[in-house]
Specification:
F1FO ATP Synthase; 93 residues; rod-shaped
Length: 93
């Protein structure tokens, strides 16, 4: 395998990894919907615990959103600032 083929393999695998990382954002949406649904159902069952349920829901939503942002960050790094390409170029060159 030559240098060009090796670089092509690294870039293609990086694109696949970026697509998987972006899939995290799609799944995060479903997770946030489940959190909100559970909170609404809990508030309907126990209206006196609304404040506690709401604050717990916002913490859960923040954690779920952070997961989606990390997936986006990993995808951007893999597409535009891939450290594997630099390592390969230094190794070959």
């Amino acid at each position: 395998m030559g240098a060009i083929e090796g670089l092509a393999v690294i870039i293609s695998v990086s694109h696949i990894a970026a697509a998987i990382a972006l899939l995290n954002g799609l799944l995060t949406t479903f997770g946030q919907a489940k959190i909100a649904t559970g909170a609404i159902e809990s508030i309907a069952r126990q209206p006196e615990a609304t404040d506690d349920i709401r604050s717990t829901m916002f913490v859960g939503l923040a954690m779920a959103e952070t997961s989606g942002i990390y997936g986006l960050l990993i995808a951007i790094i893999m597409l535009f600032a891939n450290p594997l390409v630099d390592i390969f170029i230094n190794f070959v060159g």
